Each structure stands twice: as C-alpha cells, then as structure tokens.
C-alpha cells in the first residue's frame, strides 16, 4: 500500500449539496511505527496521552492488523481487521495500532446535513463507534473509489464522492442489521415467506394473525421479528405495498379511484383516500389527475 492523504477545499455549491468530503486517504502503519504519521495538518495530529477532538465525522476502515480505541462515550476496546471506527465531531477520542502488528487504514472525513440527519435518526450510535463488519469487498471498493476521485479533483467530484459516501454509510448500516440475524437463516427464510404472502394477497383480506398461522409461529413473536427485520410491522408493510400498487393503478386511464380501492380491497373509498393522502401528501384523485396530465393521457 502506498500511503496517500488529501485535505480538500469546499465551496458553497459543494455545501449546498448536503454532504461534503473534507479529507480521504489510506495508510500503512508498520510494526512499532509512530502513530499517527507525519503529513497531516496540526489540528488532525494527536498523541495517545492527549487524544483529539475533531469538528467533523470520520469513517475509518481497518483492513489489516489490530489496535485499540477509546472515546468519551466508549471505554477502551479492541479494534481488529475488518473494524469500522466511526468518529463523531466534538467527541474526544484516541486510537492506535498494536505495535506488534501495525495496521492498514482507509478513511474519509465528512460533514453536512445528510450525515447529521443520519445520526439524528440514530442509524449509528455514538456509544458504539467501533463496528466489526469484517473484510467486505464492497466497502473496500467504495473507499478506493472515493480516494481515487479526490486525486484528480475533477469538476463535480465533491457530489460524486458524497454519493459514494452515502452508499458507504448505507452498506455499513446494512452490515449492522444483517449481523443482528447472523446464524438465523431460518428467520430470514420465514420473513421472506411472509413478505411473499403479503405481496401475493395484497388485494385480498389478509391479517398478520393469518400470516403467522400460515407460518406456524406465534403472532406476537412474528410481529416483533418481522418489524426487527424489515423496520415495519406486518400491517404497515402491507399498507405500503398497497399504496405503492395504488399509485401505479391510478395512472391507468381506465381505472377510477373507486375501482382502485376495490381492486386492492380497501375497506372503503374514504378510508383509502385518507390513507393515501397521509402517505403521499395528495388525495388519490389529485394524484391521478396530476399524473395523467403530466404523461398526456
């Protein structure tokens, strides 16, 4: 690995995009080498004794070696090959590789409304800044892609790298979610079966209790497990399926609001209209009229 780091300028147009990349790089830290190495601005340098406070988020991926990490919200803990270290702004922290192993690290620094919104909605937890995801080619490729784009700084590179960073964050979060079901292939198969049944019967009267009975599991356990896996309770998942399908059906000229409500087995037209407006911000009739006008049908 050839060491590389770059600290990037940001203009108002970049900031308006909602996410900016402030720095990126990759470093090989040899056994017993000083850490961090030279070549960083003074406000990024730190010692193990004093630690450091940044005013940005950083995502660090350890691809070989091991070490330790500590922060205000996290007690001293091990970092290993395949660990993600998530640094938060205004949070004192310190980390270093083991002198016997050294390590290889990839990192990006970022800030903006997008990452703030992700943190606000608790997709990542400041009390668990070290995430053991393992060595994943997808994550490695995304870090490499971001680093390569920073080398040339071609016009528009900031939004492009920001897009890759959002992709990276999404993949890390997916790894966290999937890890919570590790070794539970039977649960994944059950949830997949439940989703199939909901899709296949969305235009019929079907209940979560009936799905649980079909799967031969208890209703309370099924509801809790389904929500943990998908982020939605079974009934909410079914409603989302129906709303999405209704949006497609409403744009068919031959279909009326009444016929769509009937096709998808909503209990009444007023109920369908109220639910549709809650989910989309428009009544079914307004959505239909606007859509047909837009597409000239």
From TrEMBL:
DNA-binding: is it a keyword of this entry?
yes
SUPFAM superfamilies linked to this entry: Homeodomain-like (SSF46689), Regulatory protein AraC (SSF51215)
Q: Where are the transmembrane segments?
A: none
Please provide the record's keywords in A-Z order. DNA-binding, Transcription, Transcription regulation
| One of the record's GO molecular function terms | sequence-specific DNA binding
**Which InterPro entries does the entry mention?**
AraC-bd (IPR003313), Homeodomain-like_sf (IPR009057), HTH-like (IPR037923), HTH_AraC (IPR018060)
Q: Which residues form the HTH araC/xylS-type domain?
A: 192-290
In Pfam terms, one family for this protein is AraC_binding
Among PANTHER family, the record links this protein to: ARAC-FAMILY TRANSCRIPTIONAL REGULATOR, MMSAB OPERON REGULATORY PROTEIN
Going by the entry's taxonomy, the superkingdom of the source organism is recorded as Bacteria
Q: What is the protein's name according to its record?
A: AraC family transcriptional regulator
